[in-house]
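Structure first, sequence second, as always.
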């Protein structure tokens, strides 16, 4: 971590909340958050690889602990999807829900890595001024990308179920009726719904994970104020970590459930 950032609380927080950005063009607004992209891809590969490894070694006899855990996870996700989606869930919906849950859970869980350890590792590898954030879901770009992907799938599911003409008809004729006079009101109503879904879907996950990251940083600053602060910071940090386990798992579950709900709703008519 850069020495000048470590001297002040604001510098400390600013350093740990800064991304490793690569501008696409000098002076341009657009840039790539390298740390977010790399961590997301690595955790996605890890999630798929772990499940594939366990499933490939599955047996029909007495299951291993790994196999029993994955089977429990499969059953849990499948039960949740079955209660919401009434079509053929095993073709796409259930596998997508499982992928979303495990991937988001792993990305959220990176918040348990001590930020100073991460900063020290990044400085040792890339130099003193290198910044590296390991929680992809505390980057609004990640959560928006996930939510927009679900949003596009939602539109595709709606067109597949109703046809392009049926989907357009529903945009202008539901929920208030097909009278041409109220087409603008229907379209405005549906537009608000279509815009609000990705916004709420993404910002809920981002807000919770970003807030958790900031609280860990504030507790770390408190621990650096002296012996009393160290003891208080350690106790509160342990308590917050335990509570944060619930937040990490719950936010992954909520994101997965909303994904299934939105896709199921897309195939239903008003």
């Amino acid at each position: 971590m850069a020495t000048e950032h470590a001297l002040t609380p604001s510098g400390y927080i600013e350093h740990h909340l800064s991304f490793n950005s690569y501008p696409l063009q000098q002076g341009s607004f657009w840039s790539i958050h390298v740390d977010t992209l790399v961590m997301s891809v690595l955790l996605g590969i890890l999630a798929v690889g772990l499940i594939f490894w366990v499933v490939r070694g599955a047996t029909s006899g007495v299951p291993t602990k790994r196999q029993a855990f994955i089977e429990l996870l499969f059953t849990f996700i499948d039960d949740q999807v079955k209660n919401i989606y009434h079509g053929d869930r095993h073709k796409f919906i259930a596998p997508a829900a499982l992928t979303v849950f495990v991937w988001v859970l792993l990305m959220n869980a990176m918040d348990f890595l001590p930020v100073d350890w991460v900063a020290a590792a990044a400085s040792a590898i890339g130099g003193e001024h290198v910044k590296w954030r390991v929680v992809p879901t505390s980057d609004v770009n990640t959560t928006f990308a996930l939510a927009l992907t679900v949003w596009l799938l939602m539109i595709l599911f709606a067109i597949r179920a109703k046809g392009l003409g049926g989907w357009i008809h529903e945009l202008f004729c539901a929920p208030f009726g097909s009278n041409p006079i109220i087409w603008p009101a229907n379209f405005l109503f549906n537009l608000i719904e279509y815009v609000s879904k990705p916004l709420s879907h993404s910002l809920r996950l981002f807000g919770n994970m970003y807030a958790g990251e900031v609280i860990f940083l504030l507790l770390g600053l408190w621990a650096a104020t002296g012996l009393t602060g160290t003891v208080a910071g350690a106790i509160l940090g342990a308590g917050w970590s335990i509570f944060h386990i619930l937040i990490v798992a719950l936010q992954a579950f909520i994101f997965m459930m909303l994904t299934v709900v939105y896709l199921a709703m897309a195939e239903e008519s008003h």
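Margin note: Strands lie at 21-23, 31-33.
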